[in-house]
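Forum: Protein Structure Q&A
Topic: Joint prediction for protein chains with partners

I've read a bunch of threads here and the consensus seems to be that you should model interacting components together rather than docking separate models afterwards. I'd like to see that in practice. Below is the full input, 453 residues plus whatever partners are listed. Could one of the regulars post the assembled result?
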Amino acid sequence: MIPAHITPINSPIHRVDPRVRFLGGLMLALVLALSSTPIVLLCGLALGIILCLLARLPWIALRPRLFTIATFAVLLLAFLPLEIEPHSTLRLTYHPERVALAATLILKAFSIVLVFTALVSTIEPVTLGHALRHLGCPASIILMLLFTIRYAETLTAEARRMQAAMALRGFRPRLHPRSLLHFGTLAGMLIARSIDRSERIMDAMTCRGFNGTFHLYRHFAFTTRDLVATFLLATAAILLLTLHLLA
Amino acid sequence: MHLADGILSPPVLVAGTTIAIGSVVLGLRSLDLHHIPRAAVMTAVFFTASFLHVPLGPGQIHFVFSGLAALVLGSAVFPALLIGLFLQAILLGYGGITALGVNLVIMAFPAWLAALPARRRLARASSRSLVIAIGAAVAVASILGSIAIMSLALLLSDPRYRNLLPPVIALHAPLLLMEALATAGATAFLHRVHPELITHSRYPPS
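Posted by a regular:
Agreed with the consensus. Here's the joint model:
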């Protein structure tokens, strides 16, 4: 469920404070999302590739993300330039100038995904939760996030066990009404069992003194390396913004 | 259903994010910190359930269960789906991080709206076929609502995106059937074994 291959690598990016990486990634993603100037997007793409190389991201981690964007790119390139003529029903015209629009959107999507994957997806999920709390996210949201990360794995295993039990009894997943109703029962069963599980968790937490306060146990130190990283990321964002305003 | 980064225009992104923040705050207000573990386990259930998939032609298609999530969680569906979408964006690269707010509005808002009257009706429902019909109706309303909001977000961003609407809507057609039947099955099951879960006026039923 939670891809492990992204996390435990030691690279210049991985050593930077997660708070800096999250804010930097968000800032760069916003600048790139707001700009549609080709030169800015090309610089963004180059920056994304550099960051991915710096983070020593394995191809296997990057491939599914790029594949998602590529599917979207095919959809854009196939349908955006086509237009049904206003006065006839089934005549399609092709607008070559819209290929440029599609290309801009694709470039934008690729550059944002590369930058964000390199900077933020390399943060281990639990650490990211702590970093977000230190950045001032509400405690309740972070607690829910950490619980979801913790139980996603457990519940996936449970869902797999239930699916195996169904398969042993001859169930085959298909796009068929009866099969879909059974999927519903599977989801309902997962919910019903998880209610009992959550009662047990709640009891265990109460026994250990949980009174509704969420204590952070991981703290980050802002070192000189982080200062340099902040400076570099901020410079990159400002440069992209300046390029956008000049062009 | 997940919009990628970079397609939506800045005003649409700002509007979507603002509505999303407002609805998450509304959702969190209904949860005191003491009840969060229970809501969080439910969030994990829906994150997991959205990975159940059905083979379709050469590929496969996965469930969304936004209607079911809203039936069980009430207004806590907003923080729950926010976390689900955030994790999907961070861990798997589904859906853009800048479009997170818009994607949350697309997924959670119609589901929440559809589940409100449904929970009240389910409290009084006794026949199994009525329960199944309500479950299916919630799922259909959520998916249709999501498609409508998504189309609106695309059209408001750039009128030229109207070309994209027919293929996007066509891609969501099998989802409509899947969600309707699976949500109906789950609703019928839960109505039998944990009726308080989907009929209580607010989450969690204390």
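Strands of chain A lie at 82-84, 92-94.
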